[in-house]
Amino acid sequence: MTHSRTLSALGLYRRMAGASIVAQLRYPGTFAIQAIGNFITTLLGFFGIWSLFRRFGSIAGWDIGTVAVLYGLVNVAFAVAETLGRGFEVFGGEYVRTGSFDRLLLRPRSTLILLLGHELRLRPIGRFLQGAFVLIAGLWLAPHVQWSAVLVLPLAIAGGAAMFLGVLIGQAALCFITVEGLEVVNVLTYGGVEAGQYPLTMFGRWLRRFITFVLPLAAVCYYPALFSLNHPDPLGVPTWIGALSPIAGFAFLGVMVLIWHRAVAGYVSSGS
Amino acid sequence: MTLRPYFTAFGLQWKIGLRYRIAVVAGLVAQMWFGAVTLMAYASVYHAAPDVQAPLSLRQAMTYTWIQQSLFTLLPLGCLPAIGDAAKTGAIVYDLLRPVDMWNWWLSASLARLLGNAVPRAVLLACVAGPLAILVGLGAWSLAPPADLTAAVLSLLSITLGALLSATIVMWWNILTARTLSPLGSYAVGTPLAVLLSGMLLPLPLYPDWIRPFLLAQPFAGITDIPIRIYLGTPIPGGVATGLGLQLFWLTTLTLLGRLWMRQTVNRLEVQGA
To answer: How far away is chain A from the Cα of B110, in angstroms, using its nearest Cα?
Structure first.
């Protein structure tokens, strides 16, 4: 044997993800029901917005195309994070409380890679497809779509996925203190999706500030959407900001990873 | 026939619901967040279109949202967790052996579980969204009082029927769970149906006009939508009697058909495990 048999981090992740996909497809019926349920739930969510639009003629002065783009962006980004981050979501109950996090620490690999490999969840594919569908329909309906949207929207989706993954990692880091996962954090994940699908101008000032500066939701969703649709911001922020702002999502993820490493360094096992 | 076993089943699940105090507070924060986001969205939609005559005024839409948020755990989102576990492990056979009427046994447990979760949350959120919001100067965003005394009494009667109706729908999810031996299907089907059709997602009166009669006539409207309409005093076609009548109709129909389905399921139930 000449070459080393040690897997690279990426190779290891690919194997864990492959095993997880095979395991989920073992029960094709359950998978199909869950994916379809996921698709229908999210589709009905848009039906609610569409009904408001039909009754009032606009969503607070916004056309349905713009709102559809916002809705599609936030849902696609969250679906990607949900697919990757399942290990962090169940971290409190399955790793900290049971003490099995100790075993992960013994392995010569980053704990983040090992937890990402916990499960590559396929169920959010329903949300992903539905979000992509609404996003494309929105681009179709919106009047002034920019060609640069081809570059900015994928960046926005990646930035949004990074931000939601950051929330999940932060939620897992919190479990070192609380042991059990806290449902309050759902306010940032599901509640973030809920807030991200409406234009920023609809909210009061405290909420606008929160989802701009604390959780960079507006940076990965609202501003890139305005840039892609060449829609001026009623609050006066220059449109070009939207081409760069998705980077804030990666910065948020970076901060959460730093917090994670600090938290792991101070970890005390819950026992045997 | 004695009622004692059913009261015991009720008492047990009621206490389980009350055990998790931190979960109640966590739920309150989540409900206030979703409530605030929804309220701000409605407020700006209404203000942008002042000429539109909507079936609910903005104040009514806000009150509708608060009550809906506070009663979220009253919705039939899936089967009773204990029955889901019993179906997976095979412990469901013990329920079959009990010398009680199984429908009433499961129904009293399901009802207690719903009420044990919903009552503390509803009382807490009603205090925060009602008097407390007015005290801190957010009166325009607060929970409005009932239309009048009759509305208050009738809506209390109606929400009681709504809770019973919800527990009956949970019974359908329980039977589905016993049939498929997994609770996952009941959640995959139950949650989207309950969230949309009860008016949690958007108040049922605000949907497009052509679909509103169908939305009022389906069983999920009887859980929270009809009680809230009576509370607000918004007109229901045919008056309050139609609302209460629909609730009673669905309660009877779903109970009779459900009992039939349960008998059929129990007769051919195959349980795995030792």
So the answer is: 23
